[in-house]
DNA sequence: AATTTGCGCAGCCGATTGGCTTCACATATA
DNA sequence: TATATGTGAAGCCAATCGGCTGCGCAAATT
């Protein structure tokens, strides 16, 4: 059972759930109302999202409110950082090339 | 056949390929050397990454160099923006609450 | 106490995934 | 021209995915 954050957000329903819950913590039933999917299937998604720490359940009587753990989202951002860094490097090298060319012109 | 960027980066091999290619455009054979996977399987991954515009193939004789299309990566960032916005709103509301509390104290 | 409500779990099932092997084909190279 | 090399496409297969239904259980309501 792979259970990383990237596999979690691969599913469009799960991404939509995250957006919903981001605005306001919600119960499985309330979430299910927004989809053409049985409540149990939503539950399965919530389990996956919880297992990789994107959501956190908070019990309140017989209801369970699922809340977004925004910090976990930052992991995606961190992954993107690699590319920002690499691209920055590329531009730096490009700048050097351009600088060299400019100097040669003189 | 789902083919969106989130499904593309769900696979760890594909994420590694993206990082490799980000540094420098590479041929399928060169990429395959970095994995314990047959070249043909890598080809399949390259096809998927190309189909959702994360990579671009550049033919050079009988070799094909796959290059990262960094712009496409920004789509992930754009998706994350939703959450940044929502969180910003939450903090704004929290600030208001704190402000009200402070005033009540007086 | 009986019923309703909110929920998760287990198990079924067709579709998809991500490996693999075998092949065909075009471009170097001998 | 014959051979070696770089590549993608097709098809196989076990594992996983994402729906579904049918439970059981605890909390709330009657």
Automatic annotation (TrEMBL), chains A, B:
Which residue ranges does the record assign to the HTH arsR-type domain? Answer: 1-98
* Pfam families, alphabetized: HTH_20 (PF12840)
Output the superkingdom of the source species: Bacteria
Naturally occurring in which organism (per UniProt): Niastella caeni
* Molecular function GO terms recorded: DNA-binding transcription factor activity
Q: What is this protein called?
A: Winged helix-turn-helix transcriptional regulator
């Amino acid at each position: 059972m792979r259970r990383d954050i990237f596999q979690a957000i691969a599913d469009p329903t799960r991404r939509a759930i995250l957006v919903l819950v981001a605005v306001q913590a919600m119960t499985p039933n309330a979430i299910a109302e927004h989809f053409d999917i049985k409540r149990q299937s939503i539950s399965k998604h919530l389990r996956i999202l919880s297992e990789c720490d994107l959501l956190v359940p908070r019990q309140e009587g017989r209801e369970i409110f699922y809340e977004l753990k925004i910090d976990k989202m930052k992991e995606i951002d961190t992954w993107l950082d690699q590319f920002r860094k690499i691209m920055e490097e590329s531009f730096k090298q490009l700048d050097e090339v351009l600088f060299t060319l400019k100097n040669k012109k003189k």
